[in-house]
Each structure stands twice: as C-alpha cells, then as structure tokens.
Automatic annotation (TrEMBL):
This is Aminotransferase. Belongs to the class-I pyridoxal-phosphate-dependent aminotransferase family. The keyword Iron-sulfur does not apply. Residues 32-355 form the Aminotransferase class I/classII large domain. The keyword Transferase applies. It is an enzyme of class 2 (transferase). GO terms for molecular function: pyridoxal phosphate binding; transaminase activity. Its EC number is 2.6.1.-. Keywords: Aminotransferase, Pyridoxal phosphate, Transferase. It comes from Micromonospora sagamiensis.
Length: 361
C-alpha cells in the first residue's frame, strides 16, 4: 500500500504536526513524563572530562579521538563513524546527502524528525503504517521493494516496540539505504543477553545500513547535543561532506569519548536492567486500570497507552501536575494515545493513582 505522501490531499484526517516534541509539554511545576531523557546525577567519569573540556574551548574541536573511541566501542574502523550534534542532526545529513533517492519510505509510528528532515530537503515521503492491532509488528513485506531509502526506529519511539534485528536486516539490500534509528537501543535489555538485544550497530555485512545513535537520553545530555552515525565508510563519507564544519563541540566530543569507554557501557547495561524492572512495575500498575491498553510489548524507556479520550485525559493530568506526551502528532496514532516515560516506582505509583482518579471521575 502506498503511504501518505507529504502534501497530498488530506481528506478528513488532519495531518499530524511533525514538529511537535515532548519538551513543549513540560512546564513549570509539572512532573515530566513527556520527555524520555533520564534525570540522574552525572557520573564522575563523565562530569570530569566534560568539565576539563571547558578549558580547551579556544581550540577548534578535533573529532578524531572521539571517533576512534566510538569506533572501538562498536568494533568498527573509525571511517565507519560520524559524530553528530545529537541523532537529530543525522536525519538532516541523510536527507541532504541522499537527495538523489527516488522512493524514500518511513515506517510509522515513529519519531517524526526523519520524515520532517526528508520533507524539508524536498523529498516526497511515503509512509508505511504499522498496525496497533498487530502490536506494531514490522512486516518487511509492507515496505515497497523499490524503496531506495527506508527509515525505521528500533526500539521505536513512541511505541517502545523492539523489532527483531533479523527482521530489520531483511530490509537491507544493494541499492537501498536502510536507516535504523537506535537512539534508545541502550535502554533495552533481555535476560541472559549481555549486550543490547536486537542492535545492528556492530553489523558490517548489511549493504547500505546506517545506524543512528544518541547519547542524550541515558546520559541526560539533551542540551549538549551528541550522537553518531555508523555505516559503510563510503556512505559515512557522503554524509560527512554535507555536515557543517565543527558541528560537534569540544565538550560534546569529550562526552562521546567518555560514554564509549567500557565503564560507561557497563553502566548503561546496569541502567537498562533497572529500567526494565521499573517498566515492569509501571506495566503491572497500568494493568489494574480498566480501559487502558498498552500497545505491543514495551522494551524502552517509555510506554505507549491507548485510552479512549486520551486527549482529554492528558489535559486533566496536566491540571493535576503531570505532563505526558500527546500521541496524536505521530502518524498512525490519534487522540486516543498517550506516551508515558518510565520513572522510579514512587513516581509511577503517584502517576497511576492520578490517572485512576481521572478515569473514575
Ligand atoms: C527516536 C528518537 N531518535 C532520535 C532522537 C534525537 O535525539 P538527539 O537528542 O540525540 O538528537 C530522539 C529524540 O527525542 C528520538 O526520540
């Protein structure tokens, strides 16, 4: 099925606002369940290098050490790494560098910036909408065979669904660039699996694969802007050519180096395991609420809820001091959807009580 091209006649379904993000839902005095950035004291192995980098700001940034560190972390040569000002910059570089693609496809519901960046660069985007009824399962057969650029999130924001790596790998082929947004891959964990389950970050055998990573979520660095791209050297080089000079600042590079160290990766794994337990708690509490349905099987730092009248419930939550992310700005969702960040148990308990009160009223 051909998706909904940008700018096509919209019929009765309003076009979602792709430029809306959870940060604008947060306000003074509200508990933030809208933004999926972890809030925790910065570990000394990160705070130290960051602070030290401020003494070096008179020099232009040198990405080489950070590039080498990130490459070592993912067991790839440095030429297969491009540091970016957050994963968000990666979408823009892809959209700008790959202007020649003829049939770009974005798998939704997902983060809206990939499509927004493509549209801003003049691409006519097609959407493949995954089904809520099917747990937002990815069926590779839904992606048109001649799509020469495919963008998918894993785990996906806002559904929190983690697609099997093997299913995504099926989408890679010569003549196609396959972009996998792994901004939240470090939040996933599976019992008995030492690393990130279903990540393709270390795969060097898949043609046209580009993996985007973010360091802003788990490490609370949204304001610093640091992420990176991994892929074939020739493809990475094409993206690097359209990147503004010195796009990634010296402090951001220091953070990238620190976050690539084995100590940081081990800490990430421990955080992901704790998050899984907190998420199970949230899911168990939500399961007690009639009319609240969790879509698919959440695997990341947030869960997506379907509640009849969620748009009104969101406003009632705001009145009680809770900011949650509206779901209707994601293609494929609508007014009955909300996204909620996984937080500590005490916050979760208080949130679920507020939600229960609203639902009972
Ligand atoms: C799925 C997803 N990808 C990428 C990004 C961009 O992250 P960054 O802060 O690294 O630019 C976000 C931010 O919300 C996101 O949710």
């Amino acid at each position: 099925m051909r998706g909904q091209p940008i700018g096509a006649p919209l019929g009765v379904v309003p076009e979602p606002d792709l430029g809306h993000h959870g940060d604008v839902e947060v306000g003074e005095g509200l508990v933030d369940l809208a933004v999926n950035v972890r809030r925790a004291p910065m570990p000394p192995w990160l705070a130290g290098p960051l602070a030290a980098s401020l003494g070096d700001l008179a020099r232009y940034p040198d990405p080489a050490p950070a590039r080498a560190a990130v490459a070592a972390r993912h067991r790839r040569p440095p030429a297969e790494v491009l540091l970016t000002a957050g994963a968000a910059e990666g979408f823009v570089l892809i959209a700008q560098a790959l202007r020649g693609v003829r049939r770009p496809v974005v798998v939704h519901p997902q983060f809206t910036e990939p499509e927004a960046a493509l549209a801003a660069a003049g691409h006519e985007v097609e959407r493949v909408l995954l089904d809520a009824a099917d747990g937002f399962r990815l069926d590779p057969a839904r992606v048109p065979a001649d799509a020469d650029l495919v963008m998918v999130g894993n785990p996906t924001n806002p559904t929190s669904v983690l697609h099997p790596a093997a299913t995504i790998a099926v989408l890679a082929r010569p003549g196609r660039v396959l972009v996998v947004d792994e901004a939240f891959a470090d939040t996933t964990a599976a019992p008995g699996v030492p690393g990130e389950p279903e990540s393709l970050a270390g795969r060097r055998d898949l043609p046209g694969l580009l993996v985007l990573r973010s360091l802003t979520k788990t490490w609370g660095l949204a304001g610093l802007r640091i992420g990176y791209l991994l892929g074939e050297a020739a493809l990475v080089d094409r993206l690097a050519r359209v990147q503004p000079l010195w796009a990634v600042s010296t402090p951001a590079l220091a953070a990238a180096t620190a976050c690539a160290a084995p100590e940081a990766v081990a800490a990430e794994r421990a955080i992901a395991a704790g998050l899984a337990a907190d998420r199970d708690h949230l899911l168990a509490r939500l399961a007690t609420l009639p009319g609240v349905r969790v879509a698919g099987r959440p695997a990341s730092a947030f869960v997506l809820l379907e509640i009849p009248g969620a748009d009104r419930i969101r406003l009632a939550l705001r009145e009680r001091g809770w900011a949650v992310r509206r779901g209707d700005t994601f293609p494929g969702l609508g007014p009955d959807w909300l996204r909620v960040a996984v937080r500590d148990r005490r916050t979760t308990d208080a949130f679920v009580e507020a939600l229960a009160d609203i639902l009972e009223a």
